[in-house]
C-alpha cells in the first residue's frame, strides 16, 4: 500500500501584495487560511511573516513578536499542525530569521541550500525587477543549520537547481546537518523548470532514504508535475505562495481550494492523505 501523502500549504510567500491578491497577512487571516488548508488535507503550514502596519503587508517582517502572534494563532486554529518557517534573506545579516526561529521554535525551517541569480524578464526584454543575487554561501547556510539544531527545527533544504541539490549530500557528510530533507523548487524563471522529466534526475542525486517534495511555481501547467511527484512518492506542496491557479486554469479562492485540488490528485494516484499526527510519525517529529 502506498505511503500516505504529507501535504504542505505555503500560505502567503514573501512579497505578494495583499491589495492585489488574497494572501493572508494578519494573525487572524493566517489562522483562518491555515484552517481551510488543514481541513482540505494540509498537515504542514509554510509561513512568511509580513509587516502588520496598514499598507505594509506586502513587505516581510522579522519581528519575533509578529512571528509569535501569527504562529500562536495558527497553532490554536489547527491543533497539531507542523509549522515550516521561511528563513530566506538577502545579505549577511540573518539575525531576524534566527530571532523568529528562537521565538516560535518551528518543527521545520527552510534551509536555502545554495545561491541563485534571481531573475525574470519581460516580453520586451527588460528586467521585471533589478537582477538580484539570492546569496546563500556555505557559511550562511551553516549558521542557519546551527540555529535549527539549537531550536529543534528540521532543516528542509531548498534546492533551486541540480547543483544545489547535489550539494546537500556534502553538507550532511561534512557534519553541517544530520540528515537531508529536500525541497526541489521548480518554476523560478532563473532556476529549474517545472518539468516532470527532472524529477528522476533529482531523486537520483538525493541521499538514500531522504524525504523530498517539489515546490512548483506557475499556473495550471504545474499540476501534471504535481501528479508525477505524487506517483513517485514525494511529499506534496501548494498554496498561494506558489500559484493562484487551479488545475482547470481557474483562479483559486484561497489556500483551501489549492490544497483540496492537490489532495484529490494524491488520492487519484492511490495515496491517502496524512493527518498532522500521521505526518509527525512519518517524519519522526514529536
How are the SSEs placed, and which strands pair?
Layout: E1 7-10, H1 27-40, E2 44-47, H2 64-77, E3 82-85, H3 95-104, E4 108-112, E5 116-118, E6 132-134, H4 138-151, E7 154-159, H5 162-174, E8 181-186, H6 198-204, E9 211-216, H7 223-231, E10 235-238, H8 255-268, H9 276-283
Tell me the number of structural domains: 1
The arrangement of helices and strands along the chain is EHEHEHEEEHEHEHEHEHH
Helix tally equals: 9
- Per DSSP E runs of 2 or more residues, the count of β-strands stands at 10
CATH class designation:
Alpha Beta
Please name the CATH architecture.
Alpha-Beta Barrel
Radius of gyration from CA coordinates:
17 Å
Largest sheet: 8 strands, parallel, barrel
CATH superfamily membership: Aldolase class I
As a percent range, the share of strand residues is 15-25%
Spatially, the strands of the biggest sheet line up as 1-2-3-4-7-8-9-10
State the low-pLDDT regions, or none: none
CATH topology: TIM Barrel
Helix content range of the residues, please? Answer: 25-40%
Structure commentary:
This protein has 286 residues and is an alpha/beta fold. The protein has a single domain, classed as TIM Barrel (Alpha-Beta Barrel), CATH 3.20.20.70. Helix content is 36%, strand content 16%. The longest helix has 14 residues, at 27-40. It is globular, with a radius of gyration of 17 Å. The protein starts with 6 loop residues before the first strand and ends with a helix. The model has no long low-confidence stretch (mean pLDDT 97).
Amino acid at each position: 500500500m502506498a505511503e500516505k501523502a504529507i501535504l504542505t500549504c505555503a500560505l502567503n510567500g514573501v512579497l505578494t501584495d495583499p491589495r492585489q491578491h488574497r494572501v493572508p497577512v494578519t494573525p487572524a487571516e493566517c489562522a483562518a487560511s491555515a484552517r481551510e488548508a488543514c481541513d482540505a488535507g494540509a498537515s504542514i503550514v509554510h509561513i512568511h511573516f509580513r509587516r502588520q502596519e496598514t499598507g505594509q503587508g506586502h513587505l516581510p517582517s522579522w519581528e519575533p513578536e509578529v512571528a509569535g502572534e501569527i504562529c500562536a494563532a495558527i497553532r490554536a486554529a489547527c491543533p497539531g499542525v507542523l509549522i515550516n518557517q521561511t528563513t530566506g534573506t538577502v545579505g549577511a545579516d540573518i539575525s531576524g530569521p534566527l530571532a523568529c526561529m528562537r521565538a516560535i521554535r518551528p518543527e521545520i525551517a527552510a534551509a536555502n541550500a545554495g545561491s541563485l541569480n534571481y531573475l525574470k524578464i519581460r516580453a520586451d526584454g527588460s528586467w521585471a525587477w533589478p537582477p538580484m543575487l539570492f546569496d546563500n554561501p556555505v557559511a550562511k547556510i551553516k549558521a542557519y543549520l546551527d540555529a535549527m539544531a539549537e531550536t529543534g527545527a528540521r532543516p528542509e533544504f531548498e534546492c533551486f537547481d541540480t547543483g544545489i541539490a547535489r550539494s546537500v549530500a556534502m553538507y550532511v557528510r561534512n557534519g553541517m546537518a544530520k540528515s537531508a530533507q529536500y525541497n526541489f523548487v521548480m518554476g523560478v524563471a532563473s532556476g529549474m523548470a517545472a518539468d516532470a522529466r527532472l524529477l528522476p534526475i533529482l531523486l537520483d542525486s538525493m541521499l538514500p532514504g531522504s524525504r523530498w517534495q517539489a515546490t512548483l511555481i506557475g499556473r495550471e501547467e504545474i499540476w501534471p508535475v504535481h501528479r508525477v511527484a505524487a506517483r513517485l512518492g514525494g511529499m506534496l506542496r501548494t498554496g498561494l505562495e506558489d500559484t493562484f491557479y487551479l488545475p482547470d486554469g481557474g483562479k483559486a479562492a484561497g489556500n483551501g481550494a489549492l490544497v483540496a485540488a492537490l489532495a484529490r490528485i494524491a488520492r487519484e494516484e492511490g495515496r491517502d492523505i496524512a493527518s498532522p499526527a500521521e505526518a509527525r510519525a512519518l517524519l519522526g517529529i514529536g
